[in-house]
Amino acid sequence: MSADKKHIVIIEDDPVLRELTHMALSLESFEIDIFENGSEAIDFLKNNLNSVDLILLDLFMPILDGMQVLRWLRETKQSTVYVLVMTAMTDDKTEANLLSTGANKVLKKPLDIKMLLISINELLNK
Fold first, then answer.
1. What is the model's pLDDT at position 1?
2. Is residue 22 within 8 Å of 34, Cβ to Cβ?
3. Domains in the chain with CATH codes
């Protein structure tokens, strides 16, 4: 991976959304790793977290959900990696809980790819 190429991890259980997100990010020349559940992602992140610039995290997934992954990142690993949570859960309480747990941004599904790319670039260019 080149030093200027940003590394994004996608953690999403929906295969269509996972592929759509991967295709959109590939066009933007990001380094990408993809996982379909939180357990697989944590196994990868245990050894590779320092190389990751941003995590796209689905909230509801089998095995380990997005909130469990977010807590692991913030509490167990004390990581400050950017986390953008993607969820169909649209109530203010859920969003506030995610942000207070350590999410940097919450995007509502269905995802608007243009808004996703804008949000990613805003976080990565801070």
1. 43
2. yes
3. 7-124 (3.40.50.2300)
